[in-house]
Design goal:
alpha/beta; 331 residues; binds S-adenosylmethionine; TIM Barrel; 12 strands; binds iron/sulfur cluster
């Protein structure tokens, strides 16, 4: 595990692998309107390379792998990747927009996947169309029900954008009355080309205020967060589901960060906000030892958000505009 321990003593046992830069949705907060320059196919990791690199990380101490994207399910060889990674001694999981997930229920079960994170930013079909630029609201809602019926634990990721869906906070919490999901409100983060500005941010404290305007303090229970959790979890007593805040902008979780990311073109990102990527794929293809590179990437990790110590750092676009778009990071 030494190679995956950074200079602040944080051990990185959680690897997030982006399988593709492509997506079947076009969420405005994730992807610039004009799209992103896609890596040539030859520069993307093949299924064999994903497995081999993942295996190396597991040998170094990784115990959890999340598949993400773009949209991981649009990759043609998704099934093969899933099946091969399921042979590794890790907790395997996935973040998806769920549009296509009904096609993979059997395979996800066989791979031992228990929890699935699904993105859903609104409970209104027309708003869904405006944020995703696509018409798949009904499919996503149906597939969330299907996943629950098939016994998966479902976490719903909802990026809050002021003036767009912040009025739905209460509706989403009410949705957990009968739906046994974990509803996670994510603070809108700035990335290249996503038109972020601070006025669009709905901060954790504002989310809680909306909740407590509707429910009394005694109706809401603070749940115990699990170790390395990036969310603060709550529940309305008696409801089937729970809700949580992921406050990467106003109150980040960097102290206990155990995450490292591998992009679809085989680069390590040691932090969501880091521009300094380390290419593993090219040296790996050349037969070189990549262990020193992994070590170097981990040791270069900053204590907080790639050096953006306070939320004031978000006032200067220079601090984040050179970062990839979220679609090419994977969350
Ligand atoms: N396509 C899959 C999905 O949407 O779940 C996986 C990839 S997506 C990039 C992973 C997560 O990143 C999603 O939950 C999405 O809501 C979140 N995300 C994308 N852009 C974001 C932003 N600007 N701020 C906060 N979260 C963002
Ligand atoms: Fe695609 Fe996910 Fe980004 Fe939306 S958030 S554009 S579904 S990668
Ligand atoms: Fe980890 Fe970077 Fe996220 Fe902080 S901002 S929790 S260091 S990935």
């Amino acid at each position: 595990m030494e190679a995956l321990k950074d200079t602040f003593g944080r051990a990185h046992n959680y690897l997030r692998i982006s399988l593709t830069e492509r997506c079947n949705l076009r969420c405005t907060y994730c992807m610039p309107e004009h799209g992103i320059p896609l890596s040539p196919r030859a520069q993307l990791m093949t299924a064999d390379e994903i497995f081999a690199l993942a295996q190396q990380f597991v040998e170094l101490g990784v115990t959890k792998i999340r598949l993400t994207g773009g949209e991981p399910l649009v990759r043609k060889d998704f099934e093969e990747i899933l099946s091969r990674l399921s042979g590794l001694p890790v907790e395997l999981t996935i973040t998806t927009n769920a549009v296509l997930i009904d096609r993979y229920i059997t395979q996800l079960k066989s791979a031992g996947i228990k929890t699935i994170n699904v993105s859903l930013d609104t409970l209104h079909p027309e708003k869904f169309r405006s944020i995703t630029r696509r018409d798949d609201f009904a499919a996503v809602k149906r597939n969330i029900k299907l996943l629950l019926a098939e016994g998966f634990k479902v976490k719903i990721n909802c990026v809050l954008i002021k003036g767009f869906n912040d009025e739905e906070i209460v509706d989403f919490v009410a949705y957990t009355e009968t739906m046994p999901v974990s509803m996670r409100f994510i603070e809108f983060m700035p990335f290249d080309g996503n038109r972020w500005n601070k006025d669009k941010l709905v901060a954790e404290q504002e989310i809680l205020k909306s909740v407590f305007d509707r429910w009394t303090v005694s109706q809401v229970e603070r749940l115990t967060d699990s170790m390395n959790d990036t969310s603060r979890n709550y529940k309305v007593k008696g409801y089937a589901g729970s809700f949580a805040m992921i406050s990467t902008v106003t109150n980040p979780f960097c102290d206990t960060c155990n995450r490292i990311r591998l992009t679809a073109n085989g680069r390590i990102k040691n932090c969501l906000f880091s521009n300094a990527e380390v290419d593993l794929l090219t040296p790996f293809r050349a037969g070189q030892d990549i262990l020193p590179l992994i070590n170097q990437a981990v040791k270069a990790k900053f204590a907080v958000r790639a050096g953006m110590k306070s939320d004031e750092s978000f006032s200067d676009p220079e601090n984040y505009n050179n970062n990839r778009s979220m679609i090419a990071i994977g969350g």
